[in-house]
Amino acid sequence: MSDSLEQNYSRLGGEVRQAAEKAGRNPASVRLLAVSKKVPADKLRVLWGLGHRLFGENRVQEARIKIPEMPAGGEWHFIGGLQTNKAKEAVEWFDVVESVDRLELAQELQKRAEAAGKILKVLIEVNVGGEAAKHGARPEEVGALLSAINGMPRLEVRGLMAIPPFREDPEEARPFFRKLREIREGLEQSSGAGLPELSMGMSHDFAVAIAEGATLVRIGTALFGARPG
Asked: How far from the centroid of its chain's Cα atoms is residue 34's Cα?
């Protein structure tokens, strides 16, 4: 299994570099976030041995068991929907919370980060497709949310995240990726603050996301294979 994982990792690294170069971007400007939901720590240690340090988890309860089984020094991103009652553990275990989508959650993370004496990096999740079943702030709400979080001393907004509507043809996701980039550009102009990170693109569409400016691509299935629901 480790050989297959090593091969997948090497192939994906090449595909990320190729997509960046095709878009006229520095490949170093795009990072692969290994989405390790339901992947045991022994597999993650294979990636660690290859030099990979960036991991994303969807569930706090899974991460709090897995992260202590890994060497120190990794960068852990929370990428799932986050309930306020899980904010304390999210602050404890994660370096970045990518799924901040409402003021109530930001306030709770600020409170818990203050208690922990920690600066927590966050991304604002945007519902670019307007899907009722998806998390994320509406595009028209993002400016006010950013302004509010910028007033919270323990939270550092690093950029935006989105999970667009799934499309079989990756090219059909391009307008959603472009929309997130344009929202970021508008916010940078209006706020005067840099938002360097765009977390968008997954296993089947990351090349298109990179062409539209992704700096973080969240890859699970193409790296680890299919996992149970």
From this structure: 10
Say if residues 19 and 206 touch (Cβ distance below 8 Å): yes
Backbone angles phi, psi at 198, to 5 degrees: -125, 105
Tens of pLDDT, residue by residue over 50-80, are 999 999 999 999 999 999 999 999 999 999 9
3-state secondary structure of 86: helix
What does the CA dihedral 127, 201, 221, 31 come to, rounded to 10 degrees? -120
CATH of the domain at 137: 3.20.20.10
Residue 100, Cβ neighbours under 10 Å: how many? 25
pLDDT tens for 73-106 read 999 999 999 999 999 999 999 999 999 999 999 9
Q: Which helix (H) or strand (E) holds 104?
A: helix 103-116
- Residue 227 domain-assigned (yes or no): no
Work out how many domains the chain is built from and give that number.
1
Between CA 168 and CA 229 the distance in angstroms is 19
23 φ, ψ to 5°?
Answer: -85, 5
Residue 17 lies in a domain: yes
Q: Is residue 229 part of a domain?
A: no
Does this model's pTM top 0.85? My answer is yes
Structural domain harbouring 82: 2-220
